[in-house]
Structures are given as C-alpha cells and as structure tokens.
C-alpha cells in the first residue's frame, strides 16, 4: 500500500474543514457573547450611575464642588449631582453637622428611594472634627443615618472623595440585588 502524506481523502478534508469552521464560529461567538448573571449586569449599571444629593454644610462643601468640577470630574464615573432627594441614591455629607441640621438630614435621607447610600466626608462629618467640643455639634453623622464610606481629612482633597466613590462603587457591584436576605424574627 502506498503512503500518502500530502494527499488527503475527501473525508479527511471535510473533517478538517468542519473543524476549522467550528473553531471560526466559536471565535465569532466568543467575541460577541458574554455570559454573566443578571445580578452582575444590574449592579454594574447601578454602580456606574450613582446620582448624589448636593448637600454641603461647611468647608468640605467647597472640596465637594471641586470634585464635581472639571479637574476631578465625577461625571466620568457616572455620578451626577441632583437637587432633590427623590432622584438620588447617594448623599454625601460634607462638613460639620449641627444637632439642628441632623433632623433635616434624616428627613432628606428618608425621602431617598431604596437602595440608598451615604458617604461621610471630612473629619467634622465623621466624628465632629475640630468643633466636637461645641454643644451644638453632632459627633458623627452615623448617629443619625447609616454610613457606607468614610472619607477622612480636614478638608479631604477631591482625590480622596473620588477614592471614596470608587470604594462605594465596588460595594454596590458586590451586592446581591435580586436575592433578598431572609430576616429572622
């Protein structure tokens, strides 16, 4: 029997051609199809569209405005400020909070739709800061509303607030949005 290295039979040729076509179809499919869970897609959209309530009470508000400006530009992360709490899912508490203002912050927080997040910006919002000895100063906004991310500093730079927003985005991406936790009674 004669040995044929370079000549293929029709069946061998068709088999190789089918393998090449299957591989080509797999490459096209892998370039255009993404397999993930619905939770991850929803969380990706939620994390990259955090709208924050523009709320500043003291000098940290200047840094908050600077962060929303063209140099730090929170818009590139999908964060846009909104003037009403009913359109926001994030409130950034920037600056000293007095006891009188704390009840108003609680009302604004309650008006926000679920899920809602809080960033405490600056030493005064975190723990009272320089003014914690004053009789009218709240010693941390976490005594009134739950805080998700603390940004330290007096006042914190725009880069620190941007880092706080990125930490919050990561937290949102890791949440279970569709699966509700069972509450024990």
Q: Count all strands and give the number.
A: 5
Query: Which regions contain 5 or more consecutive residues with pLDDT less than 50?
Result: none
SSE string: HHEHEEHEHEH
How many helix segments?
6
- Strand arrangement across the biggest beta sheet: 2-1-3-4-5
**For the CA atoms, what is the radius of gyration?**
27 Å
Structural class: alpha/beta
* Fraction of residues in helix: 40-55%
Shape: elongated
Mean pLDDT: 80
Largest sheet: 5 strands, parallel
Ends: how far apart? 83 Å
Task: Characterize the structure shown.
- The protein has 185 residues and is of the alpha/beta class.
- Helix content is 41%, strand content 9%.
- It is built from six helices and five strands; from the N terminus they run ααβαββαβαβα.
- Strands 2-1-3-4-5 form a five-stranded parallel β-sheet.
- Helix 2 (38-47) runs antiparallel to helix 6.
């Amino acid at each position: 029997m004669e040995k044929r290295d370079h000549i293929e039979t029709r069946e061998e040729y068709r088999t190789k051609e089918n393998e090449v076509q299957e591989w080509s179809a797999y490459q096209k499919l892998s370039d255009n199809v993404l397999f993930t869970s619905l939770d991850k897609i929803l969380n990706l959209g939620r994390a990259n569209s955090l709208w924050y309530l523009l709320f500043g009470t003291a000098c940290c508000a200047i840094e908050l405005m600077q962060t929303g400006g063209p140099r730090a530009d929170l818009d590139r992360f999908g964060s846009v400020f909104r003037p009403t709490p009913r359109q926001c899912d994030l409130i950034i508490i920037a600056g000293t909070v007095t006891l009188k203002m704390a009840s108003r912050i609680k009302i604004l927080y309650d008006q926000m739709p679920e899920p809602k997040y809080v960033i405490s910006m600056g030493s005064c919002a975190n723990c009272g800061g320089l003014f914690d000895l004053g009789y009218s100063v709240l010693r941390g906004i976490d005594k009134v509303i739950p805080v998700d991310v603390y940004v330290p500093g007096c006042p914190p730079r725009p880069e620190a607030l941007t880092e706080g927003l990125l930490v919050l985005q990561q937290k949102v991406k890791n949440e279970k949005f569709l699966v509700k936790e069972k509450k024990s009674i």
